[in-house]
Structure formats: C-alpha cells, structure tokens
Design goal:
The chain is mostly helical and 203 residues long. Helix content is 67%, strand content 0%. It has nine helices and no strands.
C-alpha cells in the first residue's frame, strides 16, 4: 500500500481538508461574546430608540437570548449580524410591551454609547459637546421610520455592507439599498431643518 511505509496514516479528519478545520472550530463562549460585543449591542439598542431608563434591562435581555441560542449559531453569518438580528427582535418586543402598558420611550440624560461602552469618560467641556451631538443624532434618527432607521444605523454608524445588513435584518438586498437611499435623503432633510431652526434662534 502506498502509505504503508509512512510513519503515520494519511489524515482523513477535518484537518485534512483545507478550511474545514477552521469552520469546525468551537464557537466563542458567552463570556467572550459579552466582552467583545457588549459595546456593539449597547450602541445598537440605544440607537434603535430605547431610552436610558430601560437600556440596561434591554441589553441584558439581548444577552439572555444569546445565551439560549448560542448553540444554534453556525457561523454562516458574521457574529455581529447574528447579534443584531437578536437585538432587533428584543427591541421590537420591548416596544410592543411598552405600547401594551400605555407607556412610551422617554429621552433621559443622553450619553455617548462609545464612551460608556469602553469605560472612558471625556472632560466636562467635551462631555457637554458630545452629549449635544448624541442628542441631535437621536433626534434625527427619531424622524426615520423603523425600517430606514435600522438600515441607516448599520450602514452609516456601524459601517456594515449592504449584504451584511440584509443578513442582519432578513430583508431583500434591493429593499436594503432602497431604504438606505431614502434614509440618507430624509436624514439630510431633517438635519437641514434643524440647522434652519438654529439659525433663526441666533440673534
């Protein structure tokens, strides 16, 4: 036999097939996902319109779902698109719960998602400037409907590609392109209206 003279038989397992060993690698643990993706989930929940009073609870709910569904993640999509799909569903459930109770999302003190998520804090002057910028961003996002808001956040703020957004939202890619195009137009119009109001207020 050809391989009889070899010191060991030929590999027939996953390592013998290029790419298969990597594909079969164990999925990240919940702790690893939490450490690496907490900032992304926090930003996404906040930018999808959840007020700060409910923010921690909703983020916790997202990771509870991740814990339950982690064994179903097969790596066919990126981890972030999978996480965002869960986040979108949890936020949607939160909104439905608020509507059933007759409540509504309230804007409390606005904090920059990036500085909270990575544990850094700016100085007082920078913090005020950042808070104003974040407040404006949320006000402008509030003027978009849910579908366009979601696509705009992923494309413009998280820098996902259209195929990644389609995977994360479950939407047809042509729908993603259309929503992104109209969201950009509406966002620019909302920004122009804000700037016009600010100009009129100046003496």
């Amino acid at each position: 036999m050809l391989w009889a003279s070899r010191s060991s038989p030929p590999e027939t397992g996953p390592a013998a097939l290029p790419g298969l060993a990597e594909a079969s690698a164990p999925v990240m643990t919940l702790d690893e996902i939490y450490r690496q993706q907490f900032a992304f989930v926090w930003r996404s929940v906040r930018r999808l319109g959840v007020d700060e009073a409910s923010l921690d609870d909703v983020v916790q709910d997202v990771f509870l779902v991740v814990h339950r569904k982690l064994d179903t993640f097969e790596g066919r999509a990126s981890l972030r698109t999978w996480l965002f799909r869960i986040t979108l569903r949890v936020v949607s459930d939160h909104r439905r719960s608020l509507r059933r109770r007759g409540g509504e999302s309230r804007r409390s003190e606005v904090t920059d998602p990036d500085t909270v998520a990575d544990g850094t804090r700016p100085g007082p002057h920078d913090e005020l400037s950042q808070a104003q910028d974040v407040r404006l961003l949320h006000q402008l996002l509030d003027e978009l409907d849910d579908g366009r808001r979601t696509v705009f956040i992923l494309a413009e703020l998280e820098e996902m590609t259209a195929p990644e957004i389609a995977e994360a939202t479950g939407e047809n890619i042509n729908t993603v392109y259309w929503r992104l195009r109209t969201a950009r137009i509406d966002f620019e119009k909302a920004l122009a209206r804000h700037q016009a109001r600010q100009s009129r207020r100046q003496p």
